[in-house]
Amino acid sequence: MNRKQIKTGTTLGLAFVMPALVFMMVFIGYPTLQNILLSLKNVDVFNFTRPEAQKYTGLDNYRELLTGADSILPKAVGNTLIFTIASIFFQFIIGFALALFFNKKFPGCNFFRGIVMISWLLPVTVVGLLFKFMFATTGGIINQFLMFLGLTNRPVEWLLNGGTAMAAIVTANIWIGIPFNMILILTGLTTIPAEIYESASIDGAGKLRQLFFITIPMIKPAIMSVLTLGFVYTFKVFDLAWVMTKGGPVNATQLVSTYAYRLSFEELLFSKGSAAANVLFIILLVMGFFYIRTIDDSEVM
Hints:
Blueprint: H1 3-39, H2 60-67, H3 73-102, H4 109-116, H5 118-121, H6 124-134, H7 141-148, H8 162-189, H9 194-202, H10 207-218, H11 220-235, H12 239-244, H13 256-265, H14 270-300
């Protein structure tokens, strides 16, 4: 390949990349930069329309959010970690089990696999409303079912107590995320040749040994992708928590995303809301780099 062909190929490649680059710079890069600049000012409802009154405060907003006496950002970060880890754990376990189940060929397999996908296809706000009604103190189907079985004598105030409210939104998010885990893991399972399992069976390896010594090692890249993407998707969840609890009761389910929204659009403290959103951005950026590193390592292997 001569120099002219290389130059032509480079120009053609840049022509294909440029639309995506422009799109990302306009709709992602510019808003992100403006949000960072906003977090370094003292913008609120009183001076939002008066740029001359908007002074740079440096990292004061971040310090106040992280160490201020009235700030709940540390609690929101802790709640978000609890929400994320609990959701990912059960989503992965159930999704992995369903992937192993649907990897077997049986009558109606495709139909039931499609039924499982319903929770992933529904809008998150619809799912939030659905589970909000299910966990309702009066008339909620979960309380009615528990009282029918005799497990409780009175309705449980699921969304009015801190621990049970967190359990409720985690349950809803688990239901949403199971198909995502199942499909990605199932895709990895289809890449394993059947001959490997046949050879292992001939050598006397049981199903459990095949699972831990063949299946899991061979789909490790898929598992890492599922866990990393699951963390990113779950850590930034907003609509589900906002629809079900709005961060209550008493900030027991306040996530970083809902806290940033509350600061910006309820308390109208735009700079502090931007700072809270940037904390979320930084955490997800680190996870994004980890995901890229994981993908690169799996390709090398």
